[in-house]
Amino acid sequence: MGSVYRFVLLSALVAVLSAQFCPGGWYHHATSCYAFIDAEHLSWGEAMFYCSTLHANLVQIESSSENTFLKNHLFAAKTNASYWIGLTDAFVEGKYFWQTTQDEINFADWAPNEPNDAHHNEDCAVLGFGFHYRWNDLSCSHRIDFICERTLTSESGVLVG
After folding, report:
1. Which of 22-26, 63-67, 70-74, 110-114 has the lowest mean pLDDT?
2. DSSP reduced 3-state for 112
């Protein structure tokens, strides 16, 4: 009986040690951890740098599930702010790429009539509060909130950034 008890206890300990987790203040979804930075209002470029200091990147939204998770978090937080995401067309107008991977988007949730490059000065994307957190393009120099994302691994709970 004692060996069965030790086996169950050891199995539980191994499961805890190899469990996936996010650091305090970060939120877990699928294979990523997310930090919703609302204490620092930064330009898109500054937000990108800030995320890098956390071993993270501006969020790269790759699926409807991930997009819904982010939107639901913002709705639940009852925030009334827009948040930078890591998407830009600063290099080629109208061709949006993820800053981290340089991949073109394969999922999008643009608000109606967006992106519109208003005043020929909107090259960075946000989850837009005024659009129920659908995507909008905005001037990259605006100073707003942002979302950082870092990858989660299951190897001893180690985060890779």
Report:
1. 22-26
2. coil
Convert the pLDDT of each residue in 30-73 to its tens digit: 999 999 999 989 999 999 999 999 999 999 999 999 999 999 99
Q: How many residues belong to the chain?
A: 161
Q: At 160, which amino acid appears? A: V
DSSP secondary structure code for residue 111 in this structure:
P
SS3 content of the chain, % helix, strand, coil (to 5): 30, 30, 45
Ordered domains of the chain (ranges, CATH): 21-160 (3.10.100.10)
Q: What angle do CA 64, 139, 91 make, to 5 degrees?
A: 75
Whole-prediction pTM value?
0.83
**Among the listed residues 72, 126, 69, the one whose alpha carbon sits nearest the alpha carbon of residue 96:** 126
* H-only helix segments in 21-76: 44-53, 64-76
The distance of Cα 143 from the centroid of its chain, to the nearest Å, equals 17
